TrEMBL record:
Domain of life of the native organism: Eukaryota
Gene assigned in the entry: Smtnl1
PANTHER family per record: CALPONIN HOMOLOGY DOMAIN-CONTAINING PROTEIN DDB_G0272472-RELATED, SMOOTHELIN-LIKE PROTEIN 1
Matches recorded under Gene3D superfamilies: Calponin-like domain (1.10.418.10)
Domain Calponin-homology (CH): 1-106
Annotated SMART domains: CH (SM00033)
Name by which UniProt lists this protein: SMTL1 protein
Record-stated family: Belongs to the smoothelin family.
Keyword annotations: Coiled coil, Phosphoprotein
């Protein structure tokens, strides 16, 4: 399924990043670090991943969403306030955002897709 492929892509891109273990589209994204790791894997010069803290959720979400918008042209479909308010992010919202981010990265030629 598309969902399984997207999850596997996220898992592969974030493998090896500290404090990140992508298993789903909800709790795995709760600290904001998975978003940061995913973006850092494409834009390593955008910010220092090693300086980020799991507890600094607001900062992590804000950094990730700003980087996605600036570097990938990805619309900020998720609100930092909403993400911080919920202890576990809404899986549908996270999935939708990641689909859009993937689409933007493909459009920029940063993700290789199998041409049919």
């Amino acid at each position: 399924t598309v969902k399984a492929m997207l999850l596997e892509w996220c898992r592969a891109r974030t493998r090896g990043y500290q404090h990140v273990d992508v298993q789903n589209f909800s709790g795995s994204w709760g600290s904001g670090l998975a978003f940061c790791a995913l973006l850092h894997s494409f834009f390593p010069d955008a910010f220092d991943y090693g300086s980020l803290e799991p507890g600094a959720r607001r900062h992590n979400f804000a950094l990730a969403f700003a980087t996605a918008e600036e570097r990938a042209g990805c619309a900020p479909l998720l609100e930092v306030d909403d993400m911080v308010r919920l202890p576990v992010p809404d899986a549908k919202c996270v999935y939708t955002y990641l689909q859009e981010l993937y689409r933007c990265l493909v459009a920029k030629g940063l993700v290789k897709t199998k041409k049919r």
